[in-house]
Design goal:
single chain; 71 residues; mainly alpha
Length: 71
């Protein structure tokens, strides 16, 4: 268990917020033009996948914030 504060946690949180903001803006900007004419259920499926996709690298990122290692 960590006994001293580390710089990785605030930097990691700021980096995560920045990355999620950029990801959200890119999705909101480009996806409607690509899938806007698709049926509603297909659009819903795409947005659900994209809404969950950002979670995939999160575990390794949180491990780095706590330990300083990526695995």
């Amino acid at each position: 268990m960590r006994s001293e504060p580390t710089w990785r946690i605030p930097v990691g949180i700021l980096g995560l917020l920045l990355a999620l903001t950029i990801y959200g803006i890119v999705i909101a900007r480009y996806m409607p033009g690509l899938i806007g004419s698709w049926p509603t259920l297909a659009q819903t499926a795409v947005y659900l996948v994209l809404g969950i996709a950002w979670l995939l690298p999160l575990k390794r990122f949180l491990i780095w914030m706590e330990t300083g290692r990526w695995g």
